[in-house]
Structure formats: C-alpha cells, structure tokens
From TrEMBL:
It comes from Oceanisphaera profunda. Its cofactor is Mn(2+); Mg(2+). Belongs to the isocitrate and isopropylmalate dehydrogenases family. InterPro entries: ICDH/IPMDH, IsoCit/isopropylmalate_DH_CS, IsoPropMal-DH-like_dom, TTC_DH. This is D-malate dehydrogenase (decarboxylating). Residues 5-348 form the Isopropylmalate dehydrogenase-like domain. GO terms for molecular function: D-malate dehydrogenase (decarboxylating) (NAD+) activity; magnesium ion binding; NAD binding.
C-alpha cells in the first residue's frame, strides 16, 4: 500500500476554511483507492508572526524537508505587510525546495458561465507554466539617496540560463503530451532591454529540440488582450515569474471565478517536496463567513496526488469536482449558488 506524509499549512483567512475541505476529499479518495495519507498540521501564519516575529520557526524548512508534499491554504493578512508574509514563508519554501515550476491549469467547466461571450467548455483549456524562483521577483536592489530629491530605487531581475532553460523545457515537454502541441511565450522584449531578449533567444533555442511543437510569442500587453479575445487559441503558456503570475490570474477569471484555480509549485526532480495550493489568497474580505469556494484547494489536492504518482486519485477527485459543478446544487456564491464552504466540500466528498 502506498503511504504518503503530507505537511498541511492552512495559513490565514479563508486558507483555514478551505484546507479542511481539501483534506476531507483527499481522505475519501485515498480510502477509495487504498492509499494511506498521513497529515501533519503546522499553524504557521500571520498569527504566528504576531506572536513570534516570524512566519515560521527558524528550522521551518528543515521540518518540512522530509515530507512527501506540502498542502498550503493561503498566507497574508491585513496588519502584516505582504513582503513579510510572502518572504517569510511562501517564497523561501518555493526556493529552498527548488519548486521552479508553477503549474496552473485553466479550464471552463460545464455549469459555469464564462464572463466572455459565447465561450463553451472546451474553448478554455490551457496551462500556465510560470517560472517560480527567479526573474522579476528578486530582493536585489534598494533605495539610494533616501529622503532626498535624488531618491532612486533599483529593482533587479535575475534570469539565469539554467533557470530559464529548465522552465522552458518543462513547458515544451508538457506541450508534447497535449493534442494541440502549442507553446505561447509571454515576452516584452520591446520594453525590457536585457531580460526579455534573452528569454526570447532561449525560447528559440529550446524550440529547436521540439520540432513537432508549434511556438509563438507575444508581448505581455497584447498577450493579455488575446487571452480575453480568443482563449481557445492557447494550449501551454510559458512566462517569467511576473508575467506568469499575471496570466494565471487572468486565465481563471475567464472561466467564471478565480476561486476554482489551483497552483502546483513543482520540483520536477522530486528530490524535495513540492507544494500545492489554491491560486487565490487569504481573502480577508470574506474570511470567517464560511462562504469561500474550496474548489481551488480541492483541485490542488488532485494535482498533488498526480505528482505523487497516483493519477487514478487525481481523476477521481476531478470527476467529483466536474459533477458537482455540472449538477450545480451545492455551489458557493461566487459560482452563483448559495451553499457554504462545507456544503460544497461535502458534496464533492459524497460524489467520491
Ligand atoms: P493575494 O495577494 O494573496 O493573491 P489578493 O488580495 O489578491 O490576495 P485574494 O485573496 O486572492 O486576493 O482574493 C481576491 C478576491 O477574490 C477576494 O476579495 C475574494 O472576494 C475573492 N475570492 C478569493 N478566493 C475566494 C474563494 N475561495 N471563494 C470565494 N471568493 C474568493
Ligand atoms: Mg492575488
């Protein structure tokens, strides 16, 4: 019998409400398929920060290292600056565990209304492959002549050949497994002088190894416009940390609600744990009301089981999500229903 140890970090806000629903669904799917999952909870969050001055203990990464996967809700809450909640937990985990791929599937489900006119299920079905550990999200830079009229802030980006090539390779490999075999690269080489021309040159070099994959590239401005105008054009989208971030919020927004979107922080070499979370944040505006949609978290759980080598569990969970949305009797408010978080989590669990 396969056995996996999962580190669970519910975090802040609605993270604490959606994670229990994800665990319920995981447990049901694991029982169905004869897999043993053991969950270890960590209460690391902005509350921990208020109490201890740290988002996680000093040896936090060491504690997580031995787990098979990390299942995360969301971190961040008013009163704690974003750079503390992000750089105190999320980003160190992504970087220390070499989770250099951020994989975000985007799909329009039957039963949900896209805000784009005349879009049917099947019209929106693509992946965003986002570079997750370097690029624009760098702490290199700073302020000079602070407080004077000459004040100047520099923010550096970092694009290494290794870091660029490995994310591009992941995107091309993924495209090869898909019907359309199509990679679209997000760039801005007409504005960013060094980084994006380099990115484009690495895309061209990688494309030579994949003659059967169709490749194109668009500047990020027209890319966002095209995504809204003709989402059916896209298959595998690859972008730097910043561009991938933007496109992976825009994508799910085109499918009716960002709350169903999952995010997998993957270490493809599997020598250290990968981390699975919903795309959405802690949503302080709706926290504590039991109205958060747990589907982004549940879909992330399905991706976790796929990564751990159990596609049958992934498929069981996805079928339950699809059925729940199609039948539509336990939908949360963001999807036009009136069910609460637990009712939707329970409906999906019951379908399993
Ligand atoms: P972050 O900076 O962590 O991405 P954010 O400020 O961008 O956070 P989110 O927490 O992602 O914001 O939420 C954006 C809005 O979407 C929230 O105000 C909330 O109303 C809505 N929302 C987010 N997640 C959910 C959910 N699971 N269910 C219902 N609504 C949600
Ligand atoms: Mg956000």
């Amino acid at each position: 019998m396969s056995q996996f140890n999962i580190a669970v970090i519910p975090g802040d806000g609605i993270g604490k409400e959606v994670i229990p629903e994800g665990l319920k669904v995981l447990q049901a799917a694991a029982e169905k398929h004869g897999i043993e999952l053991s969950f270890t909870h960590f209460d690391w969050s902005c509350e921990t920060y208020h109490k201890t001055g740290r988002m996680m203990p000093e040896d936090g990464l060491e504690q997580l290292k031995a787990f098979d996967s990390i299942f995360l809700g969301a971190v961040g809450f008013p009163g704690v600056p974003d750079h503390i909640s992000l750089w105190g937990l999320l980003l160190p985990i992504r970087r220390a565990f070499n989770q250099y791929v951020n994989l975000r599937p985007v799909r329009l489900f039957e039963g949900l209304q896209s805000p784009l006119a005349n879009k049917k299920p099947g019209d929106i079905d693509f992946y965003v492959v986002r570079e997750n550990v370097e690029g624009e999200y760098s702490a290199i830079g700073g302020i000079q002549y602070e407080g004077t009229d000459d004040e100047v802030v520099l923010q550096q980006s970092v694009f290494t050949r290794k870091g660029t090539d490995r994310i591009l390779k992941y995107a091309f490999e993924l495209a090869q497994t898909r019907d359309k075999k199509h990679v679209s690269s997000a760039t801005k080489s007409n504005g960013l002088f060094h980084s994006m021309p380099y990115w484009d040159s690495r895309v061209a070099a990688m494309a030579e190894h994949y003659p059967e994959v169709k490749v194109d590239q668009f500047h990020i401005d027209i890319f966002t416009a095209n995504l809204v105008r003709m989402p059916e054009f896209y298959d595998v989208i690859v972008g730097s940390n910043l561009f991938g971030d933007i496109l992976s919020d825009l994508g799910p927004a085109c499918t009716g609600t960002i709350a169903i979107a999952p995010s997998a922080n993957i270490n493809p070499e599997k020598d250290l744990p990968s981390m699975f979370e919903p795309v959405h944040g802690s949503a302080p505006d709706i926290a504590g009301q039991n109205i958060a949609n747990p589907i982004g978290t549940i879909w992330a759980a399905a991706m976790m089981m796929q990564h751990l080598g159990h596609p049958e569990m992934h498929d069981t969970i996805m079928t339950a999500i699809e059925t729940a949305i199609r039948e539509g009797h336990a939908l949360t408010r963001d999807m036009g229903g009136s069910a609460n978080t637990q009712q939707l989590g329970q409906a999906i669990t019951d379908l399993i």
